[in-house]
Each structure stands twice: as C-alpha cells, then as structure tokens.
Amino acid sequence: MTALESTAKLKARFGDLISEPSEFRGEITVQLADAERVTEVCSFAKKELGFDYLVDVSSLDNYGEDPRWTIVYHLRSLGSGAELRIKTDVSEEKSELPTIIGVWRSANWHEREIYDMMGIRFRGHPDLRRILMWEGYPYFPLRKDFPLAGKPTRIPEVAFTQTAPLEGGPFVTAPGGKDAIEREPRVRTPEA
Amino acid sequence: MATVQDIEIRDPAARVSGAVEELRDMQGEKMVLNMGPSHPATHGVLRIVLELDGEVITKADPDVGYLHRGDEKIAENMTYTQFIPYTDRLDYLAPLANNVAYALAVEKALGIEKALPPRCQYIRVMCCELARISAHLLGLGAFAMDVGAITVFLYVFTEREKIYNLCESLTGARFTTSYTRIGGVSRDLPPGWTDQCRQFLKEFAVTLNECETLLTRNRIWVDRTRDVGFISKEMAIDYGLSGPNLRGSGVEYDLRKNQPYLCYPDLEFDIPIGSVGDCYDRYLVRMEEMRQSVRILHQCLDKIPGGADNQTKEPVNVADGKIVLPSKDRVLSGMEDLIHQFILVTQGMNVPPGEIYFGHENPKGELGFYINSRGGGTPYRMKIRSPSFVNLSILSALMPGHMMSDTVVILGSLDFVMGECDR
User: Fold this and answer.
1) pLDDT digits (tens, 9 = 90+) for A110-131
2) A89, B73, B205, B274: which could form a disulfide with A67 (CB 3.0–4.6 Å)?
3) Quick check: B44 contacting A, CB < 8 Å?
4) CB pairs under 8 A between A and B
C-alpha cells in the first residue's frame, strides 16, 4: 500500500478530521484536526494500514501564531517501505495531548524529549520526566522565545547555567533590519 | 588438530522467563546501584540506575543528557553550511557518515539530490563505508575489551589508524572531517588516495579474519554473549531500533537497500541479519557488515567515474552557483560569481518553504534529519533523529532478568555513542 492509498483509507475512516494529503519532495503529509484523537488515528494506521514502525516524533514552535505547537509523527511501514507524516496542532493554553506510547513503545523517549525541550505534556505518559536537561531545570530551551545564549539558572548542589558570550560569533544575516545587531539572529533575544 | 565443535544454543525466550521464575522464588532485599556517567563500559557519559536483587537486575533506568549541547537550537540560528561542523560531533566515531547524511537531507529539501554528479556520489559512498568500518571496529574493540578480550582492541585500533590516515589525506582532518558541502564535497580525491585505500582494504581483510578467529568461536566470548540481551523481532520494531541492532533481531531492513540513495542501487552488497537476536548475533551482523563495506569499497574504487586521478575532469559539485560556492579564480574575475559568493556566505542558500525527513543508514542505525524550512538560509526547525537515542530507550525493558555482569555485554552489543544520543 502506498502512502497515498493509506491517506485515502485514513480519510474514509476519520472523514474531515484528516486533511487532504499534501506532497513535498515525494513525501506525503496529512494534518489531523483534533489532537485528542491522535492515539486512535495512530493505532488505526498501525493495525489497519501496516505502519508498524514509528520513525520519529518531533515538535514545532510556531511562535507568534495560534495554535502555537505542532507535533509531527513520522510513520513507516517496514513491509512496503511507505512513509507517512501526520501533523497535529496544539494550542499554547492547552499544551497537552494524549500519548501514543500504547501504540509504539518507542514513543516513550520521543515524547519525553518534546516535553523537555518544548514543554508540551503528553497525557497518560507513564514517566513524563525531563530527559536531556536535568530535573528541576526551569525553562524549555527549544522554544523560539528562549534565547540562544541561554538564561542563568542555579540549583544548589545540582547544576547551574550562565549565559554564553555570543559577541563576534559566526554571523548570519537575515534580510531587512537596521544594523548588524538587528539582523543577527544569534544576538536576538525575543523576550527582552 | 582440534576438531570444530557444535555450540549448543538454548532457546533465549525460555532463558529469560526462567530467570524471572527463579527470581520470584528468592526475592530478597533490593539494592540500588548507580552505574556511570563516568564508567568505562558506558562508552561515554551514560548513567544507568540499576536495582539489583543479589546479582540479578530487577529494574534499570537509563539517564541520558550529560552531553547535551543543544545542536537543534544551534541549527535554527545559522546557515545550512555553517552547521556542517556540528554534524561531525554527533556520532563522533563516524563523522564522515554524518556529513553525508546531513548534506543529503539539505539537498533533499533543495530538491537537487538527483542532480548530484556521479563522481560525488561515489566519493560519498566511499566515505560512508569507511566510516562504517571505522565505527564498527571501535564498537567491536570496546565490546570485546569490556568482555575481557583486550587483544582485539589493539588489533582494531591499528586498522582505525589507517582509516584516520585516509581521512586526513582526503579531508585534511583526522577526526572532525566536515568534508561534505551542500551540493557536493569540499574537494576531489587527492592523488594516490585510491591506491592507499586499496592497500588498506587488503591489510584490513587480514586483520578482520584474525579478529574473527580470536572471537567468533572463542568459548568465553560465546558463553558471555550467547542468549544474553535477547531482543525479539517484534520488540525491536516496537522500540524503533535501527541499523545492526534491528537487523540482529532478524528484521531485514537497511535504508541503503530499502530506500536507496546515492549510487547504492548500482552496487552489489548483501544485508546480513541475525537469526536469534542476542548479543552474539549483533556481533556477527557487524562483522559481516564490515566485509560487505569492503566489498562496496572495492566496487567504488573500480567504478568511480573519472578514475583515480579524474583525468576526464568529472565534476564533484552540483553546477549551481546559488548552492555551491564558485571557485576562487571565478569569484575574482566574474561579476555573477562574485554576487553568488557574497549571497552564499552572508545569507546562505535559499531553501524553499516545506518540510522533509531524510533517513541515512549510519553505522549506528538510522540518522534522520527533519528539516522544516520557511524559506531563506536557516532552517525554521531541525530535528535530529539519532539512532543511539532511540536504541538506548530499549534498555529499561531489556536489562531486567539479566545478571549484573551482563550489563557491559548488552551495552557493548548495542553499540551507541553519547554525542549523538544527547545531541
């Protein structure tokens, strides 16, 4: 079954919840309208459509837009080699969606990483702790409003962070803006 | 002459359930043991909190992140080309393979992967396979040393040294190669490189056989690795294992064959798979993969367009001034080339809005890049799907029921690298 046939079956089962498939560079993406149904959709994709392998789960911070978060699931069928990407949006006020750990156990660490980096919670996850940062770290560093240089933190006896000096670093010039500092994303601190 | 003896294989599934039964009878006081993050058998900075009942592990809780550098955040703040040196530091045992994986991902986003010149594709395949040999050799050496066979470690490091020499003459660096560019490679093969490579392959085949005789039918090695760390086919898929760990469990899936890229479709090689799924099988799969890499390298050296010295001046870069830097003499003499050079250096290449995922068969497994572009020279979001991170998530399910001394065997056979796991 190709990815396009699978999306047709997904649409037949879930109707308007699943968007029309979009194609870019040969990859098929569908948008799921309601993040609360993600477990159901994933388990259908695994059991009925043969997507037995969860390649990756990643997250996007659409800073300044609503809804703010997008969760991206990459599915693969080891038998046919078909790949499908399912995306679903979550609002900032909610910042929560159900876990898919019951469908693929590899989702465990992927979801923990998203929680750690973006601060999106997965309801029903058995062990939702920070994974790359340490327990007690107060920020979510992959959010777009977290500065590249970092923020100072201190947990006595555990760990501390300081802001990194970025002056004179490698320069990226974004078009527009007034002077070099304005154009240089590495010194931009969106929150300031 | 000693005769070859058959080794008795017990059913690994029965062994695990047997251990659990045994455990039920003699439940005593539990002890919590902290292993790592600074422990020679954790190959880096992995920490595992083990709960022990006597010598049997009842619970294992891996703790990663000690080497977290925020590569994904860094990637969002620089051009695609500037990120290439960071990819060296993902799986630092196979930097060349990471370079190729990253370049291919960005090229997919640009839509130029079909336009790559054939010579460039062959050079990249050779890089990948050399990196695979180098990474598997270190994995094997460290694995064997943890189990007590120190000799193997010395043998494989002699061979790795030769690969480093090849890297040095090819890229100018032994370790942090940063060899690929988006749309090509930084330079062509240096004179005499193919001969050096052939010489290496000749010597390496001998050493690999010697390592094989040291380990494959070695009674101690077999006793320590057989039936230990058994991963069933279903479990391997469920936990998203990739690379030799997935194939060790008998799943025939290799991105080089199943989702071919570069010139792999033109090359002949086999995908070894394990029959049981224990540590011994994962070891055998890696050994055979190295032999297959040698086979691929020989074919590449024979078939590379332009030959050893590139007499016919085959290009190694995509002919597109908006992606690949023009040569210096053209920058200094041509107006258009000067503009291209300026734009590329200051703004980077323009990647059209969209999102792609590219998975590359790295030595440790599937190294994937998810690039979300909103146009311009920097990615809006770049997620690195690192094989070691996903492979390690199986530990808490795999370890319980094993003896304490089996931890080093399991860790060695999973062959992970923390630079990539923690990113």
Assistant:
1) 999 999 999 999 988 888 888 9
2) A89
3) no
4) 111
